[in-house]
Amino acid sequence: MKRLQHALTIAFTLGGTAAAVAAEDIRIGQTLPYSGPASGFGLIGKTQEVYFEKVNAEGGINGRKVKFITLDDAYSPPKTVEQTRKLVEQEEVLFLFGSLGTATNNAVHRYLNSKKVPQLFVLSGATKWADPKNFPWTMPGMATYESEGVIYAKYVLQAKPDAKIAILSQNDDFGRDYVTGFKRALGPKAASMIVAEASYETSAPTIASQLATLKASGANVMFGVVLGKFTSQMIKGVAELNWKPDLFLVPTSASSISFLEPAGLENAIGLVSSSAQKDTIDPQWADDAGVKEFFAFMKERMPDADLKNSNYAAGYHYATLLMKVLKACKDDFSRENILKQATSLRDVELPLLLPGIKVSTGPDDYLPFQQLRLRRFNGKNWVGFGDLIDDRQD
User: Fold this and answer.
1) What is the pLDDT of residues 103-148, one digit of tens each?
2) What is the pTM of this model?
3) What is the four-CA torsion angle of 307, 309, 312, 314, rounded to 10 degrees?
4) Antiparallel, parallel or unpaired: β 138-140 and 119-122
5) What ranges make up the beta strands (E) of the chain?
6) Residues 79 and 137 in one domain
7) Containing domain of residue 169, as a range?
8) CB neighbour burial string for 81-97, b if at least 16 within 10 angstroms, e if fewer
């Protein structure tokens, strides 16, 4: 009889534990550079922390509260490994979300897949994140750098078919992916249209010599695949050389006004970039419902934020994307179901996506964004122009 009572006690205790687990928080992990050379991107995570606080204040997701744990990796791969292991093994997060950087995410790519921990919406456009066959637990959060390179080349072919193109690129996967896509779209014309190429190391203090060499080539189109401080250096350097290429392209990741200001905004006039998102400070979106929703959130939750900094909008944008996945999970927050819902999004609209762009994913197609719209800087903000350009179209 005592054994039976003991067995019943154990069964009751285990049942109670299962019930407690079922009602646990949704534990989400993230690494971002809150210190170091890329610390400006830390605003993405700060915005998301505040976003999930609001979600919890409004009752959570399907009755559960979100526990969002975002840690500083200083944009250093060894630190990313340390912090990611802490999130998985000590904090017991269900998945990683929106961690930033190619080298940093690469450092934990195999680890997370071996543990079958979803690595969702990686903030890097490296092509390798969309590889469901070999790394099924990893999903990209951006259009690939290669796709964006294709889109710039299509624009050059249309706007200036007799272009003489100079390319400056960062000497890593980030730079190589853009140039690969750009050359792929130019096709056989790449050999004659590209008149000069140069690259730089991220450890370099300056890119002045590369810019002088590129100008000397006689190029009238400049494609600068640059990041961070090198964006400012390139724009200022081109102006100081009195070089005025007809088209001057920079990647989406270099287009934040915070990177343009040190170069002098007047020097960035005419610069062409691209985006899948509405530019929240562009007057054309002043009456847009999604942008109004974002501003209302910021006014309520982060009233002192400088809204010219696009990292706030980026943080909000990706939080709204993740919310679609979490709500679709209903009562099943297993890692398998989280991945299943993230890879079966159908024509999802988000408040800050440009009209006509919707998120669709599938078990064999992990790319959430494959369309972009070009935009040009007018000295104050970015103004979109032309139709959506799709890497999937011929």
Assistant:
1) 999 999 999 999 999 999 999 989 899 999 999 999 999 989 998 9
2) 0.81
3) 130
4) parallel
5) 26-32, 66-72, 95-97, 119-122, 138-140, 165-170, 194-200, 221-225, 247-249, 272-275, 371-377, 382-384, 389-390
6) yes
7) 146-275+374-390
8) bbbbeebbeeeebbbbb
